[in-house]
Amino acid sequence: MTEVNRPPRVGGWTRFVTARPRLSLLVALVITALAVVAGSGVADRLGSGGWEDPHADSTYATKALEREFPASQPNLLLLVDAGSASVDDPAVAAEAKRIAARLAEEKGVTGVGSYWQADPSSAAALRAEDGHEALIAARITGEEKEMGETLDRIAPEFRGTHGPVEVGVGGPVAVRHEMQTTIQEDLLRAEMIALPVTLVLLVMVFGSAVAALLPLGIGIVAILGTNAVLRGLTEFTDVSVFAMNLTTALGLGLAIDYALFIVRRFREELATGAEPLAAVGTTLRTAGRTVLFSALTVAVSLAAMLLFPQYFLRSFAYAGIAVVLLAAAAALILLPAALVLLGHRVNSLDLRRLFRRGRPKDSALASDAAQGRAWTRMADVVMRRAPFFALGTTAVLVLLGLPFLGVKFGTADDRQLPSSAESHVVQQHIRDGFPGSPGGGLEVLAEGRATQAQYADYKERIAALPDVVRVDGPLVRGDSAYFTVQPKGEAVDAPAQHLVDELRATQAPFDTKVTGAAAVLVDSKDAIAERLPLAAAFIAVVTLLLVFLLTGSVLIPIQAVVLNALSLTAMFGAVVWVFQDGHLSGLLGFTSPGSIETTLPVLMFCVAFGLSMDYGVFLLSRIKEEYDTTGDHDQAVRHGLQRTGGLITAAAVILAVVMVAIGTSRVTNTKMLGLGIALAVLMDAMIVRSLLVPAVMRLTGRATWWAPGPLRRFHQRFGVSEGESAAAPETQPAPERDKVSAHG
Predict the structure, then answer these.
(1) Separation between Cα atoms, residue 24 and residue 722, nearest integer Å
(2) Fewer CB within 10 Å: C terminus or N terminus of the chain?
(3) How many alpha carbons lie under 13 Å from residue 632 in its C-beta half-sphere?
(4) What are the phi and psi torsion angles at 73 (to 5°)?
(5) What does the alpha-carbon distance between residue 152 and residue 167 come to, in Å, rounded to a whole number?
(6) For the ranges 112-126, 286-300, 414-428, 724-738, which has the lowest average pLDDT?
(7) How far apart are CA 736 and CA 733, in angstroms?
(8) What is the pTM of this model?
(9) How far apart are CA 581 and CA 621, in angstroms?
């Protein structure tokens, strides 16, 4: 009897995870319950900032000003609307002063000032140009959680009608707090949308309701486990609330991918007559290896964000790595135990029979076979016209990415929130109706002993800069002082950013550091630009190594990296065209700020590149398995597409559904993240994997598998493959080779 017909061995990892399957599942249930307890309240401990470089001059200056001059950094703005009256009306002024006095008495509030109490030189900036609105500014002190609690306590007392005036609550602390609350509400709604829709799609893919529930269960375990990990991390470092969206999306998406791949292979093995335990053993040695490799490639891509200093990006690395590893662990430990217990019952409750009246029971298998033949025919068409498909798809992807050449980077502000949000309404009133940008100017911190004459001389020099509207100050305390500089135009547009560089280049007889929204943006851009090459090199080098270990080829890893990067062009082009330029803003329900938050492209690249590699590994592993068996390059490509085309497409559609559910968020950055990655995943599965990869591999031919002698020997020793150890094609009987091909 040939090796192909010999019952597969059951040992090693298979024996470990299936020895006591009921006990394994019981322990998993207990651990999951503990994770629910450990992760409870995690959302309340997450921050809504993290876009700034903690080591930058602007961050140092911000903290110094908060400490020495709290009134210089107001984070709470009360918009006082006098209606048809003037803000200088005696009744309006008296009520506004009473409100300011009450605010100053609140615990956790300092630095209260207002238009009615300001000196004439700065009062104009706190009064609307139409004279009907003015501002009360203050600072809420403490850490982010304390500030949120203080705001929750005092906001109801101050918003609303007070005699002749109407008061609205805004400012950075209100924007951040409202953003955090909105994200938590939107995430719950996204989960309510994604879970049932995902279950329906899984039932459509598997037919069996039992098989469909397995991936969903693995995803829930991964999400709950990651929440517990994030809760633990909040004890040691800052974690962004935005990371919870990634936890849900990747937890469901990747767990479903991995479980889909393993359950499909298990069912294939059962269809060949294998016993459940033997089928699990073969599945783990084949699809299990691919899942492990895929998880490593995704984790590597996400780990690159740890190289950046902004905790916004680092948070996504924490959440992403945790959820990827937990999803893979659940798929490789819990799922095999469940499959051993279920056995052939994994095909139970075949709901597709409701739509197959009068057709035989095995028509589901016939449908799968027909789908495989359709993918084979498509592979034949693509490979016969390989130059056309390679050049055509590349041109289309490049064309879709062209809008990204016009990208403008900015900071996240109130326009991330829906137009009806109170803090957005207040900030929009300030933007539209007040001179300059109250609260959006630049502050210059001066440290070192100086005379009044030196301060005056420095003030004259910065007032003479072409992008300066007005300079206020200095306010002196000991050996420190600060100036407020009002730039022309918006707080973070190009003139404001240029002014930051000019201020830093202006000579002074004391140390100066510049902060403010534009300075934070400049420093954030510099930090990303400095570390971006290192992050890209890290992703490229480790990905090249992992794909080489999988394939043993020098060319395939290069193809994988280049084609994966190319698959992301549509996402980046759409992000600029839609979210920066504002196309479809009415349909999608957001306000375009005219720029893209600086860290978002980095985040989206790392996540989407990792997911693309996920699908790439699934396809390449089956191609490599067939090539090792037959030695026929073209047949291997056809077989790989036949066996994984439908699977990858189904996984991509399910992940896209999850990401679109996340994209229903009312916060623009979250909407951009969800919809952008959904587009990237679909483009990768339906265009790159289905058309571009087979076309390019047909053009490169057998040279695809070339490697120099030393690397070939290295791969023979350390490489891995999804396939079983097979005889060489020329020594294996043809019927047996066909049998291997039939069940992958």
Answers:
(1) 25
(2) N
(3) 13
(4) -125, 65
(5) 16
(6) 724-738
(7) 5
(8) 0.85
(9) 41
Both tokens of residue 675?
């919809």
594 dihedral zone (left: phi>0; alpha: psi -120 to 50; beta): left
CA contacts within 13 A on the Cβ side of 528? 22
d(CA 302, CA 676): 17
| Burial class of residue 65, CB neighbours in 10 A (0-12, 13-18, 19+) | buried
- Whole-number average pLDDT of the chain: 84
Each residue's pLDDT tens digit, 302-331: 999 999 998 889 998 988 898 898 889 888
Per-residue pLDDT tens over the stretch 631-659: 899 999 998 898 888 888 888 998 899 89
Has residue 450 got a pLDDT over 80? yes
pLDDT one-digit tens code per residue, 564-615: 889 899 999 999 999 999 998 888 888 888 889 899 999 999 999 988 888 8
Is the pLDDT at 743 greater than 80, yes or no? no
Burial class (CB in 10 A: 0-12, 13-18, 19+), 451: exposed
Of 491, 470, 438, 490, which Cα lies nearest the Cα of 133? 438
Specify whether the CB–CB gap between 10 and 277 falls below 8 A: yes
Q: In 3-state terms, what secondary structure has residue 421?
A: coil
Share of the chain above pLDDT 90, in %: 34
- What are the structure tokens assigned to 634, written together? 């073209």
State yes or no: pLDDT of 271 exceeds 70: yes
Maximum Cα interatomic distance, the chain, rounded to a whole number of Å: 103
Interval 455-467 mean pLDDT:
91
H helical segments located in 140-171: 144-158
* Rg for the chain, CA atoms, rounded: 30
Tokens, residue 364: 């589901």
User: Is residue 179 a contact partner of residue 631, using CB atoms and an 8 Å limit?
Assistant: no
First-to-final CA distance of the chain: 20
Mean pLDDT of 348-354: 63
363, 369, 372, 374 alpha-carbon torsion, rounded to 10°: -70
CA distance 728 to 744: 16
* Token pair 């997450």 in the structure block, residue: 46
Contacts of 59 (CB under 8 A, 6+ apart): 52, 53, 515, 520, 523
Closest CA to 617 of 150, 300, 183, 162: 300
